[in-house]
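Why does residue order matter? Because the sequence determines the fold. Keep that principle in mind as you read this record.
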Amino acid sequence: MDWSVQRFGIGQPVPRTEDPVLVQGRGRYTDDLALPGQAYAAIVRSPVAHGVLRGIGTTAARTSPGVLGVWTGADLEAAGYGSLKCAVNFPNRDGSPMRKPRRPALAVDKVRWVGDPVAIVVAESPAAAKDAAELVELDIDPLPAVTRAREAASPGAPVLYDEVPDNVVLDYHYGDAQKVAEAFARAAHVTRLELVNNRVVVSAMEPRAAIGSIENGRWVLRVGCQGVFGLRAGMADILGVPPEKVRILTGNVGGSFGMKAAPYPEYVAILHAAKMLGRPVKWTDERSGSFLSDQHGRDHEATAELALDAEGRFLAVRIVNYGNMGAYLGTVAPLMPTLNIVKNTVSVYATPLIEVATKCLLTNTTPVSAYRGAGRPEGNYFMERLIDAAAREMGIDRLELRRRNHIRPEQMPYAAPSGMTYDSGDFPAVFEAAVAAADWDGFPARREASRAKGKLRGRGIGSYLEVTAPPNPEMGGIRFEPDGTVTILTGTLDYGQGHAAPFAQVLSDRLGIPFERIRLLQGDSDQLVAGGGTGGSRSITASGQAIDEASRAVIEKGKQAAAHFLEASVADIEFAHGRFTIAGTDRSIDILELAERLRRAGPLPEGVPASLDVSHVTKPIPSAFPNGCHVAEVEIDPETGVVTIARYESVNDFGTIVNPLLVEGQVHGGIVQGIGQALMERTVYDDEGQLLTGSYMDYALPRAEDVINLSFRSHPVPAKTNALGTKGCGEAGCAGSLSSVMNAVIDALSELGVTHIDMPATPARIWAAIEVARR
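Structure:
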């Protein structure tokens, strides 16, 4: 085999091929683009969380220097655009359909959160647009606001929509309530916890930006997103045109974590302005705007219960949950506190029964949607917190309690009560490897060393199993270019993950094409015939499967072509290591040479392909089940409440690992985001719906000094449901770190009698808990 293929094959730690461009500042993000004649937009947002919109005064703005136009919701309504849609369709507990109040791009009757867009101002420069936006006069009759889900469910709470008088858009239920109740009734012990899954601001490195234009009679949107094919469909629906009338173009994207996946109101507004003006319109958000307008993440309030028999065997788990949707229903907003809790809570444990009852509620806050993990970390967090509490209450060692309830490898395939069937995994082995890596038995000495410094020390376990994105098809295109390179076309999208290297590794492994000859195209909807986007830890499984199947199609076409040029029977052609060979001979042709000969050939006989190019779409690819165990140790200064991560170990099963270097980076990033949510990220609204944590002066993110060396180990058990055996890794770090860090904090505080604290475990909260315990 060619040395370069071995070096860049599956399993090799190949550096990200994007980095040389990005670290030199030569990336092409949306705000780097400038189209000829483009104008600039500013969005006017409501300063009031809830109120009746009586009028919008635009005269002063229209006459401001450099202004080209001002448009409001009434203008967009007159143009006939549709509303932004929620794609989730769950029935209520009683079988009735969930409620989906209409969401126009710009508010027309009421404003429902601070940041609700009400108008767009377009001018010759960004400064002129912003100056004029400040001249727009809003006539709003304020109404009482509600910001928490439980409060929105209370009788007499402010109502956001007349058609949703109780603010409940979905009363979700899963499970056999009677059987679960019977299990709890016969349980020897029941553990019950009230848990808060705190709201987070997504904080992608790159704020949202977009350029709208009309080109050759088509709507063109240049925007950072998570998948151009899906966004094209969503925008076409809102614009009321066939998908082929819309083109989405995406270059480099500076992070998203779920937030940039769906259509946003600003995109509709700038496209309308571009149509009215006959020139491109660019909008770039500022960080202060991002805090208000980017969809937030998490925000659930749950009552979690675990029923156990006298030996500590799990009988049932029950979650009663309140999910905060914000002011409008996001594209997948109801999914996280409902079905994804169902799928992920039972995790790696043999739990016969599960019941999840969730009310999804509207509040006067920024809309909530997917954020890294999107219900997966939450479900695992609920279970791991319950297990530690149950172990403490029953006097059972927390390691032993987990061991007694692990699903064993010989039970695979395992039918979980969530409706999922786990195809593979060795959960006990992963667990034992993590405990050994953490030097569990050496902890008492480390705790004494911390005590000698006046610190508290605790350790926590966070086992997890995640169910990746639901089954959907993916495109695998392979195109042989005239310059000798080969382009992969697929409908996932790299917004920071580093897809180019691992996708090229798969193609190089399958077709023997030199790694450096392979290119990747994901960001042009005109080039794709399908695409599920990137999300739900699906990319390497979906695009990897698509590339594998497309490679097989290339080989079949290549055999036909090679038989022609080598003057042999198709049945005698073999393919290996990038060459087509007549069996039993030394006569062969390289795949790239074959592609070039086809390009230069004249008329070809019937049955001989004109090229080796393939445009392939897979069948829906099943979900996978990445899993692992993380062990964290923390130190707490009891005088200040400050938490320091002291040790961190993780053992993960991601199935086949295509690129261990990138996988480790993905896990590190997820762990840090989980640490941020667990210890510091707190989104706060006042009683009037004003966002009090609207900048990084008030909203804390983890910094380099907050993170130690994060150990990463693998115990791979290949998946049996896709060609590569991959399981996905992008969201696993969050799932492991939320539980392990919070369990470690509570373990450290337990010697003072503190047995519960909610996320985020900020210094103020911990100090207060310590002071109460001391008194």
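The two ends are 72 Å apart (CA to CA).
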